[in-house]
Amino acid sequence: MPVRVTATHMIDETVEEISEMQTHSSSVVAVKAARALRALTDREYPTVEDYLRSLDRNSSALRRANPSHASLHTTQVEIVRTVSDADPDSVAAAKELTLDAIDGVIDAVESAKDRAAERAASVIADDETLLTHDFSSTVLATIDDAVAAGHSFEVYVTESRPRFIGRKMARHLSEREGVDVTLLVDSAAGHFMSEVDRVVVGMDCIVDDTLYNRVGTYPIAATAADQDVPVTVVGSAAKYVEGAFGFENEFRSPSEVLREPAEGFDVANPAYDATPTRLIDTVVTDEATHEY
């Protein structure tokens, strides 16, 4: 007898998958979660109130699956609020509103990177040497746009221990004409900072006066500030949130840091660190350029 797959079961699977998507960008996670809510429109509900409760409950479960991703939080809140605030008079109308809201946030997330990159490209246009940390598809797109406009760069890329995601950034950049790439161990950023015109990084989110990004961002920003090197952060406006969003850091497996078991000591492996925005000069999003 075939097993019936319910909407709730499908969303439960997405919740579990999102909780494991630790190296994916927050925009990828946000889009996946938004698409998961489409499953609710295939179920039958006796009243509009029942549907709205189900939408809110499942959206909350998706947000809890990865509380460190602001894009996930803001897009889910946007979908639920759009449907609820419209005060639909039927379940069919509520479902139609849900599908429209999902399409709207997905389009916004997927286009935000391109708009932010286009805006940020003009910020870095007069620089010759950049330093970046981790892998950011928005930073990559920013450099691509600047190169397409006729600029060239030398770029220092930190490895971003312990997962070495910066190596991916270095490989991608090395394929670009007009970009000379040097890969650094994270702790060497200070050694090379005097040669750098600008630090350019992506962001997981900015909450009030704090940038949360891949661990290692804070010491790089502090070193840059000490040497009067401007720091520019690039990302979608959906990652620029206010205090209603409570960022929760992830602490990953010690095996990422040390392959053999730790005997007689502990291993701490936080995924993100908190950088005060006073150390940042510019935040560029798809909607605006914020000066600090």
What do these coordinates show?
With 292 residues, the protein is of the alpha/beta class. It folds into 2 domains: 7-112, Four Helix Bundle (Hemerythrin (Met), subunit A), CATH 1.20.120; 114-291, Translation initiation factor eif-2b, domain 2 (Rossmann fold). The chain contains 9 helices and 11 strands. The protein has a 7-stranded mixed β-sheet with strand order 3-2-1-4-7-10-11, with helices on both faces. It has a 4-stranded mixed β-sheet with strand order 8-5-6-9, sandwiched between helices. Strand 1, helix 6 (137-148) and strand 2 form a beta-alpha-beta unit. Helix 5 crosses helix 6 (137-148).
Task: Write a short abstract of this structure.
The chain is an alpha/beta fold. It is about 45% helix and about 15% strand.
Poorly predicted spans: 1-5
Strand order of the largest sheet: 3-2-1-4-7-10-11
CATH topology of the largest domain: Rossmann fold
The CATH architecture classification of the largest domain is 3-Layer(aba) Sandwich
Order of helices and strands: HHHHHEHEHEHEEEHEEEEE
What is the percentage of strand-forming residues?
15-25%
- CATH class assignment of the largest domain: Alpha Beta
Instruction: Specify Rg, calculated over alpha carbons.
Output: 21 Å
SSE-based structural type? alpha/beta
Largest sheet: 7 strands, mixed
Number of helices: 9
